[in-house]
Specification:
Number of domains: 1
Strand content: 35-45%
CATH class: Mainly Beta
CATH architecture: Sandwich
Distance between the termini: 54 Å
CATH topology: Immunoglobulin-like
Number of strands: 8
Helix content: 10-25%
Radius of gyration: 22 Å
Structural class: alpha+beta
Length: 145
């Protein structure tokens, strides 16, 4: 009986260790090899990020388009460069064809978090069809305990 316990115990410990380390750290993603929809990525300076957050969470792409109703739509892809979760907030500002800021109640800071090494897409639709341009700001959330 003692021999069986001595041979089973290490195998059980090894199996449980493998389960713990592999079950919590991976994400499986499935997507088409050749996407049907293609992104219209543009180089842009309308994205403003604070210096601290820029070293942790980077903007890897920006896609701009129009909805069927004529509203400007923006999608920003961000990447967490760190292994730990990062908290940040973002805010879109919308401008008319003359570059005048459109005051809207939807222009508020929105808190988000992103897991380590994760890519996240943030999508926003202009609040009015008169919005022809935008600016988005990112800020690191600093929590004081």
């Amino acid at each position: 009986m003692k021999n069986i316990t001595q041979s089973i115990l290490p195998a059980c410990l090894l199996a449980s260790t493998i389960f713990v380390f592999t079950s919590c750290t991976t994400v499986n993603t499935v997507e088409r090899a050749t996407p049907i929809g293609t992104k219209q990525m543009i180089a842009d300076k309308r994205v403003i990020t604070d210096d601290t957050l820029k070293r942790k969470v980077s903007i890897v792409g920006l896609n701009e388009g129009m909805t069927p109703g004529g509203f400007l739509q923006v999608q920003i892809e961000v990447l967490n460069q760190k292994n730990s979760m990062q908290n940040f907030s973002y805010r879109f500002e919308w401008f008319d064809m003359n570059g005048v800021l459109i005051n809207t109640p939807t222009s508020v800071w929105i808190p988000r978090q992103i897991e380590g090494q994760e890519t996240l897409s943030i999508t926003a639709v202009a609040p009015t069809t008169t919005a022809k341009d935008f600016r988005v700001k990112f800020m690191e959330n600093v929590r004081k305990d």
